[in-house]
């Protein structure tokens, strides 16, 4: 299946990235990535919501 191979490729990429952070001791990247994921999730869930205009006041 195409979806299965995409999921494996994605998890392989995420695994490599986590290994890279651990190997290089770049732990400062973790909060940056977390903040970007949080903003992406916020944008995704508020896209069709009544609260969407509140996002514009933040930025």
Average pLDDT metric: 77
Count of alpha and pi helical runs: 3
Terminal Cα separation, in Å? Answer: 41 Å
Describe the main β-sheet briefly: none
Share of helical residues = over 70%
The sequence of SSEs as H and E is HHH
Count the beta strands: 0
Brief description of this entry?
With 59 residues, this protein is mostly helical.
Mind explaining what this structure looks like?
- With 59 residues, this protein is mainly α.
- Helix content is 80%, strand content 0%.
- The mean pLDDT is 77.
Task: Map the helices and strands.
Layout: H1 2-24, H2 29-45, H3 52-58
Fill in the keyword field for this structure.
mainly alpha, 59 residues
């Amino acid at each position: 299946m195409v979806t299965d191979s995409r999921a494996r490729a994605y998890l392989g990429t995420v695994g490599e990235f986590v290994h890279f952070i651990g190997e290089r001791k770049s732990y400062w990247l973790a909060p940056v990535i977390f903040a970007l994921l949080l903003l992406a999730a916020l944008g995704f869930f508020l896209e069709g919501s009544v609260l969407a205009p509140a996002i514009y006041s933040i930025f």
